[in-house]
Design goal:
The complex is a heterodimer of chains A (about 525) and B (about 150).
Chain A (H helix, E strand, L loop, with lengths): L1 H24 L5 H6 L6 H12 L2 H14 L5 H16 L1 H7 L4 H9 L2 H34 L3 H19 L1 H32 L23 H8 L1 H15 L4 H6 L6 H18 L2 H12 L12 H9 L2 H38 L5 H21 L5 H25 L5 H24 L7 H8 L2 H18 L8 H9 L2 H14 L5 H11 L4
Chain B lengths: L10 H4 L34 H9 L3 H39 L2 H39 L8
Helix pairs in contact in B: 2-3, 3-4
Classes of the chains: A mainly alpha (about 525), B mainly alpha (about 150).
Pfam families (chain A): SSF (PF00474)
Organism (chain A): Streptomyces sulfonofaciens
Membrane topology (chain A): Multi-pass membrane protein
Chain lengths: ~525, ~150
């Protein structure tokens, strides 16, 4: 009975996503439509879409699972995911929109006028995107496996196929509608069961769950599959700070987050959209902690590595029971699939965009469609090969890489005139490269030591790798004052001047045909193809 | 746009009783090039609005200085908001570790912090948009009665 409900709920979500995506297909005609919805998406629709895209498997399943196992210290995850948007708003949102670039490599090339920096940024974007896609697919396998008993690979393959088809068919415009729908679906899918479970809990007497006084002693069943649990137990305060730095500073560099800002009509709208996103994301994050808290009461045995992530899925059935519990469980499963689909499609879009522009020779929209296959294929392989890492922890690693590489590039690129291409390269390679290496060693479990300080430092790299990235960029830039890009002053004007004042400049440039950056060039190329 | 050249002549010349208008050379000598002077540059301290816009568009030193001032005010707003965020975030884990009271952690991180984040974002936006409005007013010269 349970399986039938779950399968129909998941099928309904997949079908609705494909249908809404197909509706967008009829609108999107040009390259510009395809990539960034022709920049005509209004703030409220865009904010729902950004939130829908952002709330991934880590938010939907992972946060509650970690809270259940490790206690309230893990609340820094949702707080960091939300506060990351505040930091993004403060330092990046409006100038990034005004830069007129589509992707992070576009921004890097436009600001630093260097093809080499662009190439390194492209590689890091692809690496971060793949790292972030793996837990989404793992979560899909876990959800389908937990609720229907299917093998773990089935869910991952299903999500991959749907996303590749959706992205290749419609691009960003269809994704905007799909993701706006998916935000509200995810909120409903957690809110309605939470209300019922709370009612049951109140009826049962309303006793608060008991968490172990020392969160480090909790994960008894951690085992070999959960290397992060031991490091967290060893040095909880360091792990907390590592988490805070990674999530607060990493959000701005996530490839699927960055690409969304180009859909706002102007910098002011980009800023206002971010505030709505902050409110929507914050509203959503009130719910997963509730599941973690009540999960301790109704499913206390789920403290193993892979099992804890299924707490959200199992809680309605455990607490409510009967047909009602099955229906609520199916609703949660549908919401979880919305989470995997939305984040995975946004990431695939971003990674495929970078692959088609910088790795494969560019030939417009058809090439982007081809690029979706490797964009999704590699992380699918990764998800099938490795398992047992908690979903939220793998996502936390993607944040750490993003914070070490892209946060210095964006913040210094936007606010510091003396940034040079060699400086940016040094920061990207030292900060981002070392963070990526540390994360790879931790995931592979092949670190020189499995416990102790070195392991903790590698598992939570952001605390040291972000300062390394910033320092390398600043010091090398100061040492190479001769290679400051020639058009820095013009670029800075473009980034910071409100559009109402800069309109004349862009109009003049468009009339003169002088390209202002790779983004502008493509936008015109896209418009040129419009009559087709 | 100012079309005719305006030259500031030495004080001795400007003090002459003759009207400076149409002071064109009458002789046919080609050697000393004389300039037509159309009037005293009385409003040299206050540039017309479109002039400032032009400075920015054409990437002049003055235009760059305007943009720098906008960047500085926006960076100041951003750093203020970031400090307001960072200060509690850096101290809270230490505070929680010392307190050892899980209920407080649940209440603060699970619920109370989200409205505060949104309020901080709204405060920042208001400040950033005010900076841009002030800058637009400066560039367009909309308030002619205000101080230059």
């Amino acid at each position: 009975m349970n399986e039938a409900y779950t399968i129909s709920a998941v099928s309904a979500v997949v079908l609705a996503s494909v249908l809404i995506g197909g509706f967008g297909l009829r609108i999107s005609r040009t390259t510009s439509d395809f990539y960034v919805a022709s920049r005509t998406v209004g703030p409220s629709l865009n904010a729902s879409a950004i939130s829908g895209e952002y709330l991934s498997a880590a938010s939907f399943l992972g946060v509650a699972g970690l809270l259940l196992v490790h206690g309230p210290d893990m609340l820094w995850y949702p707080v960091g995911y939300t506060a990351g948007y505040l930091v993004l708003l403060i330092f990046v949102a409006a100038p990034l929109r005004r830069s007129g670039a589509y992707t992070l490599p576009d921004f890097a090339e436009g600001r630093l006028e260097s093809a080499r920096v662009r190439r390194v940024v492209s590689m890091l974007v692809v690496g971060t995107g793949w790292l972030y896609l793996v837990p989404q697919l793992q979560g899909a396998g876990l959800t389908l496996g937990t609720l229907t008993g299917s093998p773990r690979w089935l869910g991952a393959v299903l999500v991959s196929c749907v996303v590749v088809v959706a992205v290749a068919a419609g691009g960003m415009r269809s994704i905007t509608f799909v993701q706006a729908f998916q935000y509200w679906l995810k909120l409903t899918a957690l809110l309605v069961p939470a209300v019922f479970v709370l009612l049951v809990w109140h009826h049962d007497g309303g006793a608060p769950p008991v968490f172990p006084a020392d969160p480090g002693a909790a994960p008894t069943a951690a085992g070999a599959g959960q290397p992060l649990a031991t490091s967290r137990a060893d040095h909880p305060l360091y792990a907390t700070y590592g988490l805070i730095v990674a999530t607060f500073l990493g959000t701005m560099g996530l490839p699927h987050v960055v690409v969304r800002f180009y859909t706002s009509p102007d910098g002011r709208a980009a800023r206002r959209t971010t505030v709505v996103v902050l409110a929507l994301v914050g509203l959503f994050y009130l719910l997963p902690p509730l599941y973690g808290w009540l999960g301790r009461l109704y499913a206390p045995e789920l403290t193993g590595a892979g099992d804890a992530d299924s707490a959200v899925l199992l809680l309605p059935g455990r607490a409510v029971g009967g047909v009602g519990g099955d229906l609520l469980g199916a609703l949660v499963a549908g919401g979880a699939f919305a989470a995997f689909l939305s984040t995975a499609s946004g990431l695939t879009m971003a990674v495929a965009g970078v692959l088609s522009q910088d790795v494969l020779p560019a030939r417009g929209v058809r090439h982007l469609r081809v690029a979706t296959v490797p964009a999704m294929g590699v992380p699918l392989g990764g998800a099938l090969l490795m398992s047992g890492m908690p979903v939220a922890d793998v996502v936390g690693m993607a944040f750490a890489v993003s914070a070490s590489a892209f946060c210095p590039l964006l913040v210094l690129g936007i606010w510091w005139r003396r940034l040079t291409p060699p400086g940016a390269l040094a920061g990207l390679l030292l900060g981002g490269g070392l963070a990526l290496l540390a994360v790879a060693l931790t995931v592979a479990g092949a670190g020189p030591v499995r416990t102790g300080w070195l392991h903790t430092l590698l598992a939570w790299p952001a605390v040291w790798s972000v300062p390394v990235g910033f320092l390398a960029m600043v010091l090398v830039s100061l040492a190479t004052p001769g290679s400051i890009p020639p058009h820095t002053s013009a670029t800075m004007t473009r980034l910071h001047l409100p559009e109402s004042l800069g309109a004349r400049q862009t109009a003049a440039a468009a009339a003169g045909g002088a390209p202002q950056g790779p983004g502008a060039r493509q936008a015109r190329a896209g418009r040129g193809r419009e009559p087709q | 746009m100012v079309t005719s050249p305006v030259r500031v002549f030495p004080a001795s010349l400007r003090a002459s009783p003759l009207p400076t208008l149409h002071a064109v050379s009458a002789s046919a000598e080609p050697a000393p090039r004389r300039e037509r002077v159309t009037g005293e540059p009385r409003t040299v301290h206050r540039l017309p609005g479109h002039r400032t816009q032009w400075e920015i568009d054409e990437q002049t030193t003055l235009g760059a200085a305007y943009v720098r001032s906008l960047m500085r005010s926006q960076l100041r707003a951003g750093l203020a908001a970031f400090a307001l965020l960072a200060l509690p975030v850096v101290t809270l884990p230490l505070f929680f570790a010392a307190l050892r009271n899980a209920t407080v952690v649940w209440a603060v991180l699970g619920f109370c912090c989200y409205p505060l984040l949104v309020l901080l974002a709204r405060w920042y936006i208001r400040r950033a948009e005010r900076n841009e409005r002030d800058f637009a007013r400066l560039v367009r010269g909309a308030d002619h009665d205000g101080p230059p």
